[in-house]
Amino acid sequence: MSNDNTNEAKPASAKLTKGNVTGHLVGQTLPAIIGVAAIMSIGLVDAYFIGQLGSDALAAISFIFPISVALTSLGVGVMVGINSVVARALGEGDHARAARRANFGIVFATFTGAVMGLALFALVDPLFVLMNAPDHLLPLIRTYMQPFALGFPLILGIMGFNGVLRGQGEARKTSYISISYAAANWILDPILITGAFGFEGFGIVGAAYATIIGWGIGACVAVVLVRSSDIPLELSLLRNSNLVDPAVSILRVAGPAACSNAINPIGLSILTALVALESEAAVAGFGAAGRLQSFAIVPLLALSGSIGAIVGQNWGAREYGRSRQAALYAFGFCILWGLAIAVAMVSGGEFLAYLFTEDADVADEFALYLKIAAWGYAGFGLLIVANGILNAVDKASFALAQSVIRVAFVMLPVAWLLVGSWGSEAIYTAELAANLFGAATGLALIYWVLILRAPDAAR
């Protein structure tokens, strides 16, 4: 029983269960936008400086991008699991349980990162051969991925800390962590990739070094910020505790959420392999446009992350009406932002392409991708926000099933059936179809879970 009293001196609060729901959405999402934008900017800055190394380097990073996104998406699933269980424990008023789950989550995330990193290091060559990467690009890919794999436990540790902070509604602190390691990357990229101040640079592997150093800085910032939060960073809480509860609770959400988050980039990896059968210019254009797209949908990604703490805390506190209100406002924003940014991307596709490359063939593929896929941005936003809500209310298995069906029965079949006659255009159309399907099924699932099957539905 002593462990249950550990956190009494500084009880954590379920602050998102009180006050204006719209205010919480804005207050949690705006800092998250800054943090997510900082993270996404890393890919853009990498692409810019790697693009200066030539089309081979840009094609290599285009193969690497979906794999790195898939791996970090698995980590995001772990973060979501920690966020969900901490938020619901706080909403229920069980502060000691929240603290145990938080500390276990940090250890679990870091250990998971170590296992994933070692597996990646061992499987680099077979993985990218499977993606149809040309032989002459494999040395470039290998030289980047091996140090990236060894540094991977750092980013998973950061995600563990972020899950703890998000569960408390501390979105501002998570943005500080993201900004810290993104800023390090901005500074180090030009030095380590292309060279500066008399230093020649390392080429493509310099991007990996910059990323790892940035992660190390971010991890240090995360430790400081969690220690200053309402939930203590005290691993001793786990010493005499029953670890079955935090392990089962986190894995019940983190397992499906990790797989759900990873399925989309895995699908994109397969699409990249299909694009590779067309031309290297198509791969380079597809990869560069994908990085720009990731930056354009930052507000949607931020909202999908912030909605979990708001819905989770209110669901735990049995404030079901507030959870539904938050979902409604979030969906409305997804539609408005997604359509607005699609118009901008389609209109400026050719101009944006030449910011990344001077190769006309690559630029044409870049613009073609935006012309088709951008109309799915709103649908993707609805999908990921719906997934965030399902994870928050302990329905992660629903989100996983939806994601599997979306990729396995919509995205990949459309691409496979059309690629022979449409070429790369089929790949981009497949992504659009998958996002529209994800939007429709996401809305239907949330209506069923939050309205038809909610505990207060009979009232």
How large a portion of the residues is in β-strands, by DSSP E?
under 5%
The secondary-structure element order is HHHHHHHHHHHHHHHH
Class by helix and strand content? mainly alpha
Number of helices: 16
> End-to-end span in angstroms?
38 Å
Would you report the number of β strands? 0
Using only C-alpha atoms, the radius of gyration works out to 21 Å
Explain what the structure shows:
The protein has 459 residues and is mainly alpha-helical. The protein contains 16 helices and no strands. Helix 1 packs antiparallel against helix 9 and helix 5 packs parallel to helix 7. The protein is globular, with a radius of gyration of 21 Å. 59% of the residues are buried. The N terminus is likely disordered.
List the helices and strands and how they pair.
Blueprint: H1 21-51, H2 55-91, H3 95-130, H4 138-150, H5 152-167, H6 171-194, H7 204-227, H8 244-276, H9 280-296, H10 298-316, H11 320-347, H12 349-353, H13 360-373, H14 377-392, H15 396-422, H16 424-452
